[in-house]
Amino acid sequence: MDKKKLLKMAEKPNNIPGIYNYCDRWCERCQFTSRCLNFQMDREMRDGKEINDINNEEFWKHMESIFTVTHEMLDDMAKEQGIDLSQIEWTEDDKKRDRDRKKSVRKHQCAVASKEYYEVVDKWFKEHEFLFKEKEDELNEQLMMELPSANPEQEAVTIKDAVEVITFYLLFINVKLMRALHGKFEDRYEMPDDLPKDSDGSAKIALIANDRSISAWGKLLKHLPKSEDEILDILVLLERLRNMTEKEFPDARKFVRPGFDEGY
């Protein structure tokens, strides 16, 4: 894809500007893909090719084309503003501030807690594969017995969906909180107080992922009683992380995400 084609796609009146900046990247479950430039661009570049495998040469060609087009557009925008990107250099103060910011972000309680959540849940799934096998056998038995009070098919769908939600957002929460924290430190130096902050937008989608994960764990709690204590401990981790995030980003819930929070 070249710049002209991308710019033509961006000019479609049906597109919602910036909707892709604060979404959860779960395109399969999104109702706005037909109005999202990022989705359209990705689909155009893929063009039916299997390029999801990082070991596939096509994957890296795909990534390179995205970076090339993006760099060209950024360079054009900078030139329009009279800025030569090749002449911009970091001062020692800039480098020190960046190092200090990264260090502060890594040590922040939200970053630490979200990493802990990821590690605990990753370990739990690895150690509890047997629970899901037992549940599968139980549901198959109910299906064969045709018990009138049971609905094994619906229960299986509920469990499958809960697991998909939990695993999809598992690393996502940490990634978005890290972005939010980095943004908050940058906002202190660069953003006027009266403008919506990117850090709040990133924190909001992390909170939404947290909320959905809590709901999903609640469903597993109901259907996997043998792991009740461990699931409750995980829910406590998530609730604590949610409280930390809301305290650190008090305006995050009020952030208006393009498309999603605008009544489209």
Number of helices: 10
Strand content: under 5%
Q: What is the tally of beta strands?
A: 0
State the assembly state of the protein chains: single chain
Shape: globular
Helix content: 55-70%
Sketch the topology as an H/E string, one letter per element.
Answer: HHHHHHHHHH
Structural class: mainly alpha
Radius of gyration: 22 Å
Largest β sheet strand count, sense and barrel closure: none
State the separation between the terminal residues, measured CA to CA: 29 Å
**pLDDT average, as an integer?**
85
Into how many domains do the coordinates divide? 2
- Contiguous uncertain segments of 5+ residues: none
Lay out the secondary structure.
Layout: H1 3-10, H2 37-46, H3 57-80, H4 92-107, H5 109-127, H6 129-145, H7 152-169, H8 172-190, H9 198-223, H10 228-248
Helix pairs in contact: 4-8, 5-8, 5-10, 6-7, 7-9, 8-9, 9-10
Write a structural description.
- This protein has 264 residues and is mainly α.
- The mean pLDDT is 85.
- Helix 5 runs antiparallel to helix 8 (172-190) and helix 7 (152-169) runs antiparallel to helix 9 (198-223).
- The chain starts with a helix and ends in a 16-residue tail after the last helix.
- The protein has two domains: 3-87, no CATH class; 92-254.
- It is globular and about 75 Å long.
- The protein has helices at residues 3-10, 37-46, 57-80, 92-107, 109-127, 129-145, 152-169, 172-190, 198-223, 228-248.
